[in-house]
Amino acid sequence: MTTPTELYETHRELLDRAVKAARERDYWSAFPESPSKSVYGEDAAPSGERAFTALLGKTFPVEVPGAVGTVATERSPYGIELGISYPKADPLALVAAARAATPAWRAAGPYGRAGVAAEIIKRINARSFELAHAVQHTTGQAFVMAFQAGGPHAQDRALEAVAYALAASTRMPADAGWAKPQRGADPLRLEKTTTVVGRGVALVIGCNTFPTWNSYPGLFASLVTGNPVIVKPHPGAVLPLAITVQICREVLAEAGQSPDLVTLAAEEPGEGIAATLATHPDVRIIDFTGSSDFGNWLEANARQAVVYTEKSGLNTVIVDSTDDYKGLLRNLSFSLSLYSGQMCTTPQNILVPRDGIETDAGHKSFDEFGADLSAALGKLLGDPKRAAGTLGAIVNDGVLGRLTEAGASPSVVHPSAGVADEQYPHATIRTPVVVRLDAADDKTYTREWFGPVSFLIATDSTPASLALFVETVRAHGALTASVYSTSPDVLAAAREAALDAGVHLSENLTGGVFVNQTAAFSDLHGTGANPAATASLTDDYYVTGRFFALQSRHHVPAPESADA
Amino acid sequence: MTTPTELYETHRELLDRAVKAARERDYWSAFPESPSKSVYGEDAAPSGERAFTALLGKTFPVEVPGAVGTVATERSPYGIELGISYPKADPLALVAAARAATPAWRAAGPYGRAGVAAEIIKRINARSFELAHAVQHTTGQAFVMAFQAGGPHAQDRALEAVAYALAASTRMPADAGWAKPQRGADPLRLEKTTTVVGRGVALVIGCNTFPTWNSYPGLFASLVTGNPVIVKPHPGAVLPLAITVQICREVLAEAGQSPDLVTLAAEEPGEGIAATLATHPDVRIIDFTGSSDFGNWLEANARQAVVYTEKSGLNTVIVDSTDDYKGLLRNLSFSLSLYSGQMCTTPQNILVPRDGIETDAGHKSFDEFGADLSAALGKLLGDPKRAAGTLGAIVNDGVLGRLTEAGASPSVVHPSAGVADEQYPHATIRTPVVVRLDAADDKTYTREWFGPVSFLIATDSTPASLALFVETVRAHGALTASVYSTSPDVLAAAREAALDAGVHLSENLTGGVFVNQTAAFSDLHGTGANPAATASLTDDYYVTGRFFALQSRHHVPAPESADA
């Protein structure tokens, strides 16, 4: 057995570095994003693939307390047969097991818990290739993206949550002396102790598209602050979280803790286990990523819990002018294409003055801009192999349906097309559709069209674009916003507009940074200030609601009895 | 005009010291609690009294945007005629004025806002004697307590909230550079800016018994994090908050800000302005102190806001054994008597094994303990003048009603009696009642009996007392708990029980520290971990929900264009 305290000592340097990075918010990453042999070793890729293949067609080996039977609910967007089944959870048994595991976890203290968490994340990192295959074949992400976003980037976000949880839960000193001066008498003296106590059972509800990246922050923030965690995966993306839970349980048991501190809640689709768990009186923390419908339901109904949701919104681009027209088109077309727009951060509404914009390549009319954006998409996605690596596959029928609906519009600027994949002939791969709208068409563009659907919206002017941006994002939310302008006044106005709308802003991205990507330890994801999310990955608000600081106090023993 | 930034520079040393005290949580106080001439000056007491007297029978001079007419709702528990009226608020006008004032306040930044807050608190401190009279004649607190709890102690809690708000809202750097290494190319470089944005209009709902102490933390936490604040006083205790709002507005205007950042919402009793404001879509933060009924209503209905409530509960004392029996009796009888038990922290349920306890004065049976506690109360309150100074006056008829109801019990251990006051012949002053109950009488003792009503409850044993303590506090809440024992095992079990119950614990208080008193910068007040309160005064959780950190990011300009 390696105790939590010993694990803390083992990973102390990593944790200290992570806390420093979270404080300074400059560039730092603990886990290399390159799936190369020079980084992960000669055998990492093939052995990860073997590990994944060995899971196919079997019951996944993870213990679930009180499980009855199995469920198999996944299908690969790349068309391969998965056939993996999982123990079917009994929600009441999971809650009971979680509660029983809690007291020893409370006693482990924040440092011990952070040590356990760091060990878990390191072991997750060691299985990045296996996880990459699991993410690819449940989400439809192309392999390299599945490796990066589902592996090291998710691990960085996990470690970031650990760092915030550790820093916040140790900010109040565990012991403090208090001596109040008294006129003509000795001071009143007390010794005070502060103990971190978790809020209660935590529930993490995963999504279909980013099962690890979006679940890890809540999982690790709750765990480090003293809470047991029930992990409820999306029925379409169980495997990446099943592997994660398996690793958590293995490390917890080795550390002398109950493995039931982290359990897997797999269900048949439509069984409603998330709602059952979310309204259980002992479930006190909920992290959710997914649809606004269920997120809003959770916020309204899970009254006994603190609820952190990341839902959806109207990610907006304001185009005013540019001194790098090619860079703009290249950057924006890649943002629309990456993972077929199935990122919660993909731009949907592109606001352009109907009179056109000024660029380093001269004035561009609204229609010219649309044609140039379409040409840029064509260039980016012209080669099928490269296109497949950027687009990945369509995750489910809901996305396909919206793509078809948008494609039927009379004002398509760039039509969607199918792409063939050499390796996976049954993969469902589509290029994005871009549709021209007018500012008056708010019924269309104030809905979220999750997937590869974007709108080029003609506005009266850039100030009108900014006003529309503030109004729509305040009402419907957004996770990202970006602006292109050469005017310092417009940029200043866009910054104020983004503060009013409550969304983070990217300015003039024309190079290798994209509005839909955020870096752990530096970029916040979500704000809480608009309806798309209730909190930000990661800041103090995201972690401080997960624990309580409880004090005890007593008089300092008189000196003569101090050594009694 | 003195700008917010200049005010920050003026008070920088005080703010730095406060942030340090909040971090270290040892003894520190910014504002002397002694109402003596040597501290506050020869003329402070008489001039404070003159200022108070000058307010009687008039309309209080505070501007309220959109006010129509006036209201006069206060009566002194000491029987003097107040006759002060206040502008009657129009809730929609207050919200509109608050919103209009917000943008310039956001632009002032955390340091500027903390500077303004520090200036306000210093001016409040300078009017401590005037405020003491205002608190005495609205709450019934005796003068010295009204001075201390309503003045310097409340000011310390205000400064503590400022310190937490300032530290939390400046923890993320305002500017950060980010440089991501690229293989075979220059690093990707971004500059990132973080701006603190308030959540929205804040509402502070005051209580009748501690109008300043309980309102200041929320008021200042919201203000410093960038929010305008509407202060809704209890109709029975308007004056202390009207003076506070007057000072806020004066300082804000002098700092070039809109005074409507802080407004007073006075109403006729029963008008329901608190509920109207609390459910307004623009009201996004609520701080409430008062009854569980309305607190629970707010938590259930003010869905658009973060809600911080401090309600009521079953403050519990577990008596197991002592090596200072006289000290225990002296300390406990004072805790029951101070301000006639009208503190949210006064012990209600005193759990004693029915077989009695071991003490340094020999074994004491349950009945002997009751008789000795009654005798200690008699000794403490035997002299009417000293009794009046400890008890203060009964704040309202609700308290009197409960006192009468409890006094009619067949098992009164210590009966309540009236006390005459020399200075205020019409004051309503009563000593506490103590009633004997059995552990089976849970219907009686699981209700909160706010006021000078306590129960001596016979249990089967100390382990039974601890189990009863955990069960009742988990279900009904508590703000305080204390234990008396000479056994390290019992103390350890009591600490675990307090962690399970989610309440702070005081151990073996026999001297000059009382369970119902907490010191700013060191003792937390409330926990969030039981139903009595949703948060703690003051920790990071109490402040982090009041603001958002919004980022903007852009590429670093290329060197050749940096000075363009």
Description:
2 copies of one chain form a homodimer. Chain A is an alpha/beta fold. Chain A folds into 2 domains: 7-171 and 187-311, Aldehyde Dehydrogenase, Chain A, domain 1 (3-Layer(aba) Sandwich); 316-507, Aldehyde Dehydrogenase, Chain A, domain 2 (3-Layer(aba) Sandwich). Helices cover 42% and strands 17% of the residues of chain A. Chain A contains 19 helices and 19 strands. In chain A, strand 3 (175-182) and strand 4 (185-198) form a beta hairpin. In chain A, helix 1 crosses helix 7 (152-169) and helix 6 packs parallel to helix 7. Chain A is globular, with a radius of gyration of 25 Å. The two termini of chain A are 36 Å apart. The mean pLDDT of chain A is 96. At the A-B interface, strand 3, strand 4, helix 18, strand 18 and helix 19 of A face strand 3, strand 4, helix 18, strand 18 and helix 19 of B. Strand 18 of chain A pairs parallel with strand 19 of chain B, so a sheet runs across the interface.
Please state the second-level CATH architecture of the largest domain in chain A.
3-Layer(aba) Sandwich
User: Average pLDDT value of chain A?
Assistant: 96
Beta-strand segment tally of chain A: 19
CATH hierarchy, class of the largest domain in chain A: Alpha Beta
Strand fraction of chain A equals 15-25%
List the helices and strands and how they pair.
The structure is a homodimer of 564-residue chains.
Chain A: H1 4-24, H2 37-40, H3 44-55, E1 70-71, E2 86-87, H4 91-126, H5 128-139, H6 143-150, H7 152-169, E3 175-182, E4 185-198, E5 201-205, H8 216-224, E6 229-232, H9 239-254, E7 262-264, H10 273-278, E8 283-289, H11 292-301, E9 306-310, E10 316-319, H12 325-337, E11 349-353, E12 357-359, E13 362-364, H13 366-380, H14 384-391, H15 397-407, E14 412-414, E15 433-438, H16 442-445, E16 453-459, H17 462-476, E17 481-484, H18 488-501, E18 505-507, H19 540-544, E19 547-555
Parallel strand pairs in A: 5-6, 5-8, 6-7, 8-9, 10-11, 10-17, 11-16, 15-16, 17-18
Antiparallel strand pairs in A: 1-2, 3-4, 4-19, 12-13, 14-15
Helix pairs in contact in A: 1-4, 1-7, 3-5, 4-7, 4-9, 5-6, 6-7, 7-8, 12-13, 17-18
